[in-house]
């Protein structure tokens, strides 16, 4: 069972870009902007929210649970396993235990991370030293918030975090959530 992640129950900003054409495929992937997570991931998100508040920020979520059908659509749009998990192997998003997000300041402006969400280039990798000091600091802040709440990062995407034992959760199709997304 997955849990709905939305205000006011979760003090976050939602900007579910895969429900719009403003994503790497250029077309909406999801029929509806629904944000869902496995209960353990939802628990850790609450801890992340509290840590972000402690540094004067909020979290803006771009993606969470991604049905198998959506993973195939992304794979067809950008079949590079560095950035898009091969749907035959499974994505941690498709397990409901991964989240894509950023930090926003008190005015609701995203912190500058050096690249946009879903910029599938080496500049999006963690540990880049060719970014400005502020961009490196902002990525380190996000990494600290998420790591402090028990998430693992994905080295190729500054915005992607997942549960440490993600592979133990089953892959889920849209039917698992009542056909709400596709």
From TrEMBL:
The keyword Hydrolase applies. The gene is ddpX. It comes from the Bacteria. Binds 1 zinc ion per subunit. Its cofactor is Zn(2+). The keyword Repeat does not apply. Pfam families: Peptidase_M15. The record marks 66 as: Transition state stabilizer. Zn(2+) binds at residues 93, 100, 160. The active site is at residue 157. NCBIfam families: PRK10178.1. It is an enzyme of class 3 (hydrolase). Belongs to the peptidase M15D family. Its EC number is 3.4.13.22. GO terms for biological process: cell wall organization; proteolysis. Keywords: Cell wall biogenesis/degradation, Dipeptidase, Hydrolase, Metal-binding, Metalloprotease, Protease, Zinc. It catalyses: D-alanyl-D-alanine + H2O = 2 D-alanine. SUPFAM superfamilies: Hedgehog/DD-peptidase (SSF55166). Catalyzes hydrolysis of the D-alanyl-D-alanine dipeptide. GO terms for molecular function: D-Ala-D-Ala dipeptidase activity; metallopeptidase activity; zinc ion binding. This is D-alanyl-D-alanine dipeptidase.
């Amino acid at each position: 069972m997955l849990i709905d992640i939305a205000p006011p129950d979760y003090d976050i900003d939602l900007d579910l870009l895969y429900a719009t054409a403003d994503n790497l495929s250029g077309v909406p992937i999801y029929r509806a902007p629904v944000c869902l997570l496995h209960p353990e991931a939802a628990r850790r998100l609450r801890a992340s929210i509290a840590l972000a508040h402690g540094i004067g920020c909020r979290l803006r979520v771009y993606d969470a649970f991604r049905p198998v059908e959506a993973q195939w659509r992304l794979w067809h749009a950008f079949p590079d396993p560095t950035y898009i998990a091969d749907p035959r192997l499974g994505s941690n998003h498709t397990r409901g235990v991964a989240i894509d997000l950023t930090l926003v300041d008190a005015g609701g402006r995203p912190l500058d991370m050096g690249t946009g969400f879903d910029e599938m280039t080496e500049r999006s990798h963690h540990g880049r030293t060719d970014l400005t000091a502020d961009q490196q600091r902002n990525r380190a802040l996000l990494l600290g918030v998420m790591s402090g709440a028990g998430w693992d990062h994905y080295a190729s995407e500054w915005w992607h975090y997942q549960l440490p034992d993600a592979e133990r959760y089953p892959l889920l199709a849209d039917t698992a959530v009542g056909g709400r997304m596709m």
